[in-house]
Specification:
Blueprint (H helix, E strand, L loop, with lengths): L2 E10 L8 H10 L12 E5 L11 H4 L3 E3 L5 E3 L4 H6 L10 H4 L3 E3 L3 H4 L11 E3 L36 H7 L8 E5 L8 H5 L5 E3 L6 E3 L9 H5 L5 E4 L4 E4 L4 H4 L6 H4 L6 E9 L3 H4 L7 H8 E2 L4 H9 L4 H8 L2 H8 L4 E2 L10 E4 L8 E3 L2 E3 L7 H4 L5 H8 L4 H22 L5 H10 L4 H12 L3 H4 E2 L5 H15 L16
Parallel strand pairs: 1-15, 12-18
Antiparallel strand pairs: 1-12, 2-7, 3-4, 5-6, 8-9, 10-11, 12-13, 14-15, 16-17
């Protein structure tokens, strides 16, 4: 057992209001500079929709993530060992600036400098790359709220797995079905960007699992952009380097939540540490698609298990770090309650950002001019939601509908239980039956309600101490090694690393 620490996240999509405050907070802190104008390390997408960059989920087009070969071993979808050298100066699967959008601003000074005339002066849009006037064609949230648009929603790559009848029903009801999906770098356990980088500039920090790009080592070959299936690595056209979300590691090292988490208006974001067994990674990433979520959860270790605690201590994790993992809200949502699921587990990068799928409005049909809302029981709404379970399963569980159905039923059970407690107009036997079906008691449903609706900031963000003093000692030890000198006993302690 090789126990390591990973900082992980949960986004509760039933609470996201699509305000983009998280995106603006990240933009102002990290990417408000030349060459990074088009970068949105945090963006919020409307689903169904094509997303940012356009159709990023279509890996037949972009060739990101991992695939299994005929021998069962994983390989990068977009490269082979020999093909890396051939593609070093040309990569046909890179998104173009049009797939993102050409960043623009407005010539606001024209509003003040335009000579007096009969017409109202306007501020023309100009490209932030060329400085020339442009006709705006797209933006980072161009399809915002267009959940039924034939231009965007109907071109969602996930709809290819939905039946024609479900598609017809989806777009029949006044085109009003959509939800929001905020996205940042997943800081995966099996990151394809790290594997693809020829210069070794991308690495995964041993102390907390944050994936970073060494700007001094980066040569701008952009293999990471192609290899990342979530398209969360970006090329800075001004510096000639690749950049990505750094999970605000300067903030978490001082006990603060990342900027996008801290600014979240809907309080949808949860942040905490998970212990995982690094020895299980190759096997977990190689199982059939339908088993990926279970294998993903199987990597995560119970921080209350004495054997896990001993393994963590052996790898240099202090008792305060282990205690923080015991209080992690991410562990509760992902392991204890099984409500949170990974986005596109079929990419096999083992992402460490999990989503609680949203409860959608109930589907109804129009027959002979009548709007049919036949009651099908409290759990019947799951299979009658406007967005088909097939669609949500393609997003959050690699096509395994059982995981999505369970998460939705458990959320309904929480609502029914709390309504029975506070209003008292639901049949107790019916609610008890619901609780038994999802394997939860009243205490668990109350705990889910408490952490979902009434959490304090300290409950949403449980950040383990970073122990910078140990990192500084490691650096000193490396210097001593280089000089051929010995340390003072620190070398005998296992050093955390990847």
């Amino acid at each position: 057992m090789n126990v390591r620490l990973q900082m992980a996240m949960v986004f509760h999509l039933d609470k996201c209001i699509g305000c983009h405050t998280c995106s603006i907070a990240c933009k102002n802190v990290w990417t408000d500079r030349r060459g990074a104008e088009y970068m949105w390390w945090n963006n919020v997408e409307t689903k169904p929709g094509t997303g940012y960059p356009t159709a990023w989920e279509d890996q037949d087009r972009y060739r990101g993530g991992w695939v299994q070969g005929s021998d069962g071993k994983l390989r990068l979808r977009g490269f082979s060992k020999g093909g890396t050298l051939e593609s070093i100066f040309h990569q046909p699967y890179l998104p173009t600036i049009d797939d993102y959008y050409e960043p623009f601003t407005y010539r606001y000074q024209d509003l003040f400098d335009t000579p007096e005339g009969a017409d109202q002066p306007t501020a023309r849009p100009v490209s932030m790359i060329t400085g020339k006037p442009i006709d705006i064609q797209a933006g980072p949230n161009w399809d915002d709220d267009l959940g039924g648009s034939p231009v965007y929603a109907e071109n969602d790559p996930n709809l290819t797995h939905v039946s024609e009848e479900d598609k017809r029903l989806l777009f029949e009801l006044e085109r009003m079905t959509f939800f929001y999906v905020p996205r940042i770098c997943n800081h995966c356990l099996n990151p394809s960007c790290v594997a693809a980088c020829p210069s070794g500039a991308i690495y995964k920090r041993g102390e907390d699992g944050v994936v970073l790009i060494n700007q001094e080592a980066c040569r701008g070959w952009r293999f990471c952009v192609t290899a990342c299936p979530y398209k969360k690595s970006y090329y800075n056209w001004s510096t000639g380097k690749s950049e990505k979300c750094i999970l605000c590691f300067p903030r978490i090292e001082t006990g603060q939540a990342p900027a996008c988490f801290h600014s979240c208006v809907g309080r949808i974001r949860y942040f905490g540490g998970l212990l995982y067994d690094a020895d299980k990674l190759p096997a977990a990433a190689s199982v059939p698609e339908g088993e990926l979520v279970d294998a993903h959860r199987g990597i995560i270790l119970n921080p209350n298990d004495p054997a896990v605690v001993a393994g963590a201590r052996k790898n240099g994790l202090g008792p305060d770090v282990i205690e923080a993992c015991r209080r992690s809200p991410v562990y509760q949502y992902v392991i204890d309650w099984k409500l949170a699921l990974p986005l596109h587990a079929e990419f096999r990068t083992i992402p460490m950002l999990f989503y609680v799928p949203p409860l959608m409005p109930v589907m109804a049909t129009v027959e002979n001019g009548a709007y049919d809302t036949t009651e099908t029981g409290l759990f019947g709404v799951v299979d009658n939601m406007r967005l088909p379970i097939t669609y949500l399963a393609r997003l959050f569980s690699a096509g395994n509908e059982g995981h999505v159905r369970y998460a939705l039923k458990k959320q309904i059970a929480v609502r029914a239980h709390r309504r029975m407690v506070t209003v008292g107009d639901l049949d107790r036997d019916a609610v008890t039956s619901m609780m038994q079906e999802v394997g939860a008691d009243a205490a668990e449903l109350d705990a889910i309600y408490r952490l979902t609706s009434l959490p304090t900031e300290k409950e949403r963000y449980v950040i383990p101490p970073s122990h910078r003093e140990e990192a500084e000692q490691m650096l000193k030890t490396d210097v001593l090694r280089a000089k051929g000198e010995t340390g003072f006993g620190f070398l005998e302690r296992p050093v955390r690393g990847t």
